[in-house]
Each structure stands twice: as C-alpha cells, then as structure tokens.
Design goal:
By secondary structure, this protein is α/β, with parallel strands linked by helices. It is about 35% helix and about 20% strand.
Length: about 700
C-alpha cells in the first residue's frame, strides 16, 4: 500500500485538475538526453505523441538538450506553466515544489519515492508538499507515482512506454489507480483488447490529490463512460462515496479492484458485530450500495470493464446462450446457477421466431445447442441472433464458439459478424471461445470488436463478469424514509450496559421483552408481580459486556421461591467470576417465547461510517458467520430481500413445515437500528444478540442490547 498522508479533505475544482490532465504548457525538471533516464523518457513520449503545446526543459547543467533550449533553474521558467514533471531525485522535490508554487504553476507530477512510505522524515516532507500546494491551489499527482496519460488529446505525462493506443470511440474507459504499476497493467490490458481509453492516472501517495479528486473530475468528462479502479486504501471514503454516486447518476459505471480482504491485523472488538464486520467488508458493503461494481482480480476487472463499455447498459436477468455442444449447455447451466444468473426457459411452443430459425432436429432450449450445423449452414447464427434479439425475455446473448482449427473458427466468426453488420443488434452480444488457445484469427476478433461485440477466451469469464454486472445496484437501492435519530449515547470509550441501551433504543422502534432494573430482591419481586412469570435475571454493569460468561444470566425462573434462589445464585456467580465488581442492578425481564435466533448489530467505521449486520445468531454467531452487512438506510423490503439471501434463510420461511417467521418485524428492528446509527455520532458499535423472530404476525424481540461508544 502507498504511504499514508494527513492531507485535509480538500477538493480541487475542475479547472485546476484540467491544467494537469489537459496542459498547454509543460516543464520537465530533470530533463535529459540520456537514454533510459526519466527526463529523457517523458520528453520522448511527448514528442512521439505530438504534443503541440510548449515544452520547457530544466537541467542545472545544460543550456540545450537536443534541439530544445534548456534553463538551469525553475526561477527561469515563465509564470503560470500548466504542468511540471519532476523527474528529479527525492532530495530536490520539496524545494522544486516551493519554487513552482511561487511561479504560479498549475500542477505537478512527482515520480520520486521515499516520502510517506519512507519513514517520519519522508512523511514530514510529504506533508509540507501538501501544505505548499494547498496554499498555492496547485494540483499535485504523487509522489511515488508513474504519472498519467490523456489518450484523447495524446498527452503522456509518464516515463513508461505504453503500447500505442489506437482504438477510438465516443465511449471510453478511464483507469485510475494508486499503484502506478497496476495502472499501467490495466491500461495495457485495455489497449490489447482494442478498447478506447480516455486516460490512465496513477495517484501514488496522494499527498494532495487522490482517487476521489480524479473520479470527481471524470463525472463530467464526456469521453469517459466506464472507470476502472485499483485502490488499496481510500483516504477520503466519504468523498469517494459522494463522487461515485454522482458518476453513476451521470450514467458512468465504476469497476473497483480493492486488494486487502484478509482479516489479518484487525483487533478484536467488544461485540459480536464488531468481530464479524471487518474493514474490507464495511468498504465493500458501502461502495456496492453506492453502485460501484467490485472485481476480485485484474482479469475480472478488465472483463467487467470491457463488457460494461461495449454493452452500454448493465445486463440484467435474461441471458440467452447459443452453443454448439450439449455438454457445454450443461456446464453453462451449472455455472449460471452458482453465480445467480437467470436463463429464461425457451421452448418450441413459446418461441416461434427461434423455432423457425432452427432446423427441425434442433429443439428450442436455453442454452441452445445448434450442434455443428453452423459449419454447413452458417446463416443459422444470424437467424438465431435476430430471433433472440427480438425476444423481450432476453437481455444479453452469449455465443460460445469452438475454435479447434482456424478455418472452422473463421466460418463461425464471419457468420456472426456478417449477421450483425447486416442487422445490428439492440442487445449486448458477447462471443466466447470454448477452447482457450484455439486458433482464431486476430482479424476475426477485431471485426467483432468494431461491431461492439466483446470477445473472451472462455465462457466462464463471461459468466463471472455478467454476474458482477447484474448484481450492481446502480446507485438505486431501495432506501428507507425513516429519518435518522440522535439518541444521545455516551462519551468516547464508554460501554452502555444492557438496561440503559434498551432505554435508548426502545423509543425508536427496536422492540424488547418487557423489563425493569431491580436494585434488590424486594424490587425484583415487585417487578415480577407486574411482568408475570417466567422471568430472566441479568446482571447489569458497563464492565460486564459478556454476562453469560460470568454466570450473570439466569433463565426460566417460574415462581417466588425460584426467584429468591436465582437472585442469590447470580450474586454468588458474579462474586466468583468478577470479585469486587459492583453492579448497577439486575435486569428482570419477561421470558420471551421461542423463535428463530438472529443477530442484529451495527458498526460505525471511523472513515466509512455505519453499516448494519444481520444474520443467524446465538452463541455460534461468530463461528457460523451466516450474516450480511447492509447499508443503514435500506427500506424494510430491501432488508428482507437481503435476509432471504442468507444460507439458513429457509429457517425463516417455513422449513420442514414450521410456521413462517415475522420477517417484517425483524426488518423493522434493522431499519430502526439503522436510523439510530445514522443519527447518533457517538456510537461505535451496537449488538442485539440474540433477536428472536416469532411466527408471522407475532413480532420479533431483541433479548440483549449493548452499545459501545
């Protein structure tokens, strides 16, 4: 991961970033004619791509480099240069930034490493760079970056030699990555697939500007339709969520690869919820809620971004597959079921156009098996594609083609291309090879790509990418109308015991069994007389988060004699397990009826904000981890939909003849907790474990509650 920085959350306006991405004047500090040097490489890139603006060279020992004049210091440069490239050693960077700021330079690219990632001294220098830049209004990319390339205007502010990007189009992909190496890798991948690029930006240590600033700029960039990102750490998560929502609302799609899903290094939390809601999980929940599509690797990042670009709209349920093998049909069906992809059922009776397109011996199914008929009757591909394109049940069409030899491959590729050239499809069409490494002509693939058809080596890669795209929320998740509420909570570091937690949460829609705090046996008897037996006794103290471990919970108390015995037993248990602990009192609670045990909780990440956890609970909650993390602003219907995706969800819907559970009551508790954590800034974690969900119409109650601040 790149080095940390403490740069304040400052956003640069569009014009400021424009001076970096579309400069009309460039200064190269550390200019050189020595082959392989950074200064020589960036100059060669600018000259190769025909940069038409002014180029100013700076080298303390040279008056001329090649046929270009060279000045010896920054103070000899003209005022107001748009972009400065710092191809100089780390030791000279800070002074250069000071001098550039004094000359009114609009932006700078710092290649050098050795700043925040290099220790305290480097961190201090990076912070000083940030201070100078903020005061001067100067955009700084890096340090520790590989620069950028504006592919639309052919402006390479990088020293690396990328392959020539020749693909053109009104819709392009922007690559934004903290890692310069990964930015170059993703850009190279796109170029190899003939995908038009708008820009590639490596943000490095992000001393001044980060991925959030560049995404904010790209919101209004007409050339950019898809943004492919590699981010190891979001330094300004709330700003990213904000600009991501704006980009998606503007019709752009964001695909994110975020390394770091392991739980290594995370400290144990006080609650079940905190233990199960890891940092990466929180990030994933909230960025997906904003509409961002997550990829699990570089290959998948490229695949999703390509389909998103070439297909134009997010493919939803309704995939049709035109294959050449019965075995492949079965494999596609298996993979689709695992990935949650819907393949509409097609038959001879309900698909007359498709039936007419096929020979009599080929039944209408989905996936379709046209056998080897395409070699003797290549027109079958065109007839089939046109019939499926006109079918309202179909949203996307995949055509896996066997590529065993180059001649038969070419017949099939040509047939598909000719059909689409004659009658362009209105739905996304994706061609996949079946035998990766099979002999297919590059010209055949290029012909398909010019028609907007994506090509992949295997159908498995297509299906994985389609599943990611189909699951994208597009920033339009079902949101609650329940307002946020502030319950007050407590000071930082405090743990609010159960009885106080319940007092705070109950007025806002979190339901509990009737209960009251007793300070002695006499008050316990009075409370029990009001509640009625059976009851539960629970020891109450902010220093006793896990009461059961200390024998602080006694259940199924059925009469006065049992109450007296339980009261003494509880006192003895606490004295044995926690000598010297003084209780606030003992909570006397009405014994709840039986129900399905769930856990509901919340975690407020200091950077990302709150998430809600819901899943199957009890003492095995952390072991089974059959839970889902949700954004705290979901509606009840959206909450129920997520709960029904859990592995053990059948236990809530009438498993083996049991009565269906009151899902609406469970969702109401989740919704209420979301309202509280959205509105109460002091809360760090909330744990409701277990929550009993009774049969439909009988409600749900949280049996325990713990708020940590």
């Amino acid at each position: 991961m790149q080095g940390e920085t403490t740069t304040p959350d400052q956003a640069f306006d569009r014009n400021a970033i424009e001076r970096l991405l579309r400069p009309r004047s460039i200064a190269i500090l550390g200019a050189s004619d020595r082959p392989g040097s950074l200064g020589a490489s960036v100059l060669a890139n600018l000259e190769r791509d025909g940069f038409s603006g002014d180029i100013h060279l700076v080298n303390a020992k040279r008056d001329q480099i090649g046929d270009r004049p060279c000045v010896r210091s920054v103070d000899q440069l003209p005022d107001g240069i748009d972009a400065a490239i710092l191809a100089i050693p780390q030791v000279g960077v800070l002074d250069a930034i000071r001098e550039l700021a004094a000359r009114g330079c609009g932006s700078a690219v710092i290649y050098s490493a050795g700043f925040a990632e290099g220790g305290p001294e480097g961190m201090a220098q990076q912070q000083e760079i940030a201070r100078i830049a903020r005061e001067a209004g100067m955009v700084v990319e890096g340090p520790n970056c590989l620069g950028l390339v504006n592919f639309v205007d052919n402006i390479p502010l990088t020293f690396i030699d990328l392959p020539k990007a020749t693909a053109q189009g009104d819709r392009r992909i922007a690559v934004v990555s903290q890692s310069g190496a990964m930015a170059a890798v993703v850009a190279t991948t796109m170029i190899s697939r003939d995908i038009p690029l708008s820009c590639y930006i490596s943000t490095g240590n992000e001393a001044v500007t980060g991925v959030e600033d560049y995404i904010g700029y790209l919101v209004d960039d007409k050339e950019t339709a898809v943004i492919a990102m590699v981010v190891e750490h979001f330094r300004k998560p709330q700003r990213f969520l904000d600009v991501a929502r704006k980009a998606i609302a503007a019709g752009k799609q964001i695909v994110l690869l975020h390394p770091g899903s392991s739980e290594a290094g995370r400290e144990s939390a006080a609650t079940h919820t905190g233990a199960m809601a890891g940092d990466h999980d929180v990030m994933q929940t909230l960025v997906q809620h904003a509409g961002v599509i997550l990829a699990e690797g570089l290959e998948e990042l490229g695949d999703i971004a390509e389909i998103a670009l070439r297909c134009g709209t997010l493919p939803q349920d309704g995939l049709a597959v035109v294959s050449e093998s019965g075995a492949l049909k079965a494999m596609v069906l298996d993979a689709s079921e695992k990935l949650g992809i819907t393949l509409p059922k097609l038959t001879d009776e309900d698909s007359p156009a498709l039936r007419e397109a096929l020979p009599s011996f080929v039944p209408v199914t989905n996936p379709l098996d046209v056998t080897a008929q395409g070699l003797v009757d290549p027109g079958i591909y065109g007839r089939t594609l046109h019939a499926l394109n006109a079918d309202d049940r179909i949203s996307t069409i995949m055509v896996p083609l066997i590529q065993t030899d180059i001649s038969t491959s070419s017949i099939k590729f040509t047939a598909v291309a000719e059909a689409l050239e004659a009658t362009p499809a209105t739905k996304p069409i994706i061609v996949a090879g079946v035998d990766e490494g099979g002999t297919v002509q590059a010209s055949d693939v290029a012909r398909l790509r010019k028609l907007g058809v994506a090509y992949f080596p295997t159908p498995e890669r297509v299906l994985r990418a389609l599943a990611r795209l189909a699951s994208a929320k597009g920033g339009k998740a079902d949101v609650t109308d329940k307002p946020a509420v502030d319950v007050g909570a407590a000071g930082p570091g405090e743990v609010i015991p159960e009885y106080k937690s319940k007092e705070l949460l109950a007025p806002h829609g979190v339901t509990f069994s009737p209960c009251e705090l007793a300070v002695d046996l006499a008050s316990a008897k009075r409370i029990t007389a009001d509640l009625g037996y059976p009851v539960v006794l629970k020891a109450q103290s902010a220093d006793l988060s896990h009461k059961s471990d200390a024998g602080g919970v006694i259940i199924s108390i059925g009469d006065d004699a049992a109450l007296e015995k339980a009261w003494q037993q509880l006192a003895d248990n606490i004295a044995h397990h926690r000598p010297g602990l003084i209780l606030d009192g003992v909570l006397v609670e009405k014994m709840a009826p039986k129900g399905v045990e769930m856990i509901v909780g919340a975690r407020v990440d200091p950077e990302w904000g709150p998430v809600i956890l819901v899943g199957f609970g009890g003492v095995t909650a952390e072991l089974l981890k059959d839970v889902a993390l949700l954004s705290p602003d979901l509606s009840r219907d959206a909450i129920i939909a997520e709960v029904l995706k859990l592995r053990m969800a059948p236990l809530l819907t009438g498993f083996r003849g049991a009565a269906p559970c009151d899902l609406n009551a469970l969702a109401a508790i989740v919704e209420a907790l979301g309202s509280v954590v959205r509105g109460t800034p002091g809360i760090r974690e909330v744990d409701l474990n277990p929550v009993l969900v009774m049969p439909e119409g009988q409600g749900a109650v949280a049996l325990d509650a713990l708020i940590s601040c």
